Hints:
The structure holds two protein chains of two kinds.
Chain A: H1 5-13, H2 17-42, H3 48-70, H4 78-106
Chain B: H1 8-12, H2 23-52, H3 61-64, H4 66-91, H5 95-125, H6 134-165, H7 175-200
Helix pairs in contact in B: 2-6, 2-7, 4-5, 4-7, 5-6, 6-7
Amino acid sequence: xxxxxxxxxxxxxxxxxxxxxxxxxxxxxxxxxxxxxxxxxxxxxxxxxxxxxxxxxxxxxxxxxxxxxxxxxxxxxxxxxxxxxxxxxxxxxxxxxxxxxxxxxxxxxxx
Amino acid sequence: xxxxxxxxxxxxxxxxxxxxxxxxxxxxxxxxxxxxxxxxxxxxxxxxxxxxxxxxxxxxxxxxxxxxxxxxxxxxxxxxxxxxxxxxxxxxxxxxxxxxxxxxxxxxxxxxxxxxxxxxxxxxxxxxxxxxxxxxxxxxxxxxxxxxxxxxxxxxxxxxxxxxxxxxxxxxxxxxxxxxxxxxxxxxxxxxxxxxxxxxx
Lengths: 111, 201
């Protein structure tokens, strides 16, 4: 049972591996259920805005679960968070850039 | 909490870094940030054209083979959990477990690509091609680009597997297993967004 201090430190950096295995399995189950839920919700033929909101909401939850637990973002520090924040800012800029187009389209503006 | 203060990062990487983060890990995250922008620009273009163009005609669910894409999504999710279990195995000094989980991850990646290779001719038969309209252009560009990333991930994992078979990895030296995992989970993450976008909505 004796582990050298360094390998124990490796384990602690991402949490205790034995405990983390249970977390990984739980995240996997959640991802599978959410995928089934996405397809099931889509088959209900709900109004389009609601269908988009449901699918986008589930996708965001799945992305967060994968990033936080599988990619170990939950255990990272400021440098990695900084890089991720940079990417998210770029995505926000892309969304803000297209928002006038979307607003125009939804408002019925046509050229 | 930050893991930078823990000594293992400095000891397990080749040399100390000024950030406290191994160069490989920081490099992988910077690379993935650029990938986020690449896929983000394609997705935002898709949204604008989908909402704004009267020429954007989305094929029916039958033509899109939604059940096949659904199974493929589950395959990628399974591959993500086997990848993270491979890392957990080597962290627990279980190289055999790591090799089996890595092999399963590679197999899942190959299954995903095989299904895509079956799906593309099926789409062509249905009249959906890269030049048949806006949907076809986006579908083949985004899934093709994602497929190339899956292939890259399979090759990266193969490299890790071959080195693992030679006994290269240990709890003290498993950084690259982690980097390969981060990349592979990103590939899964992109598909989680593409699946509802291209097949369901």
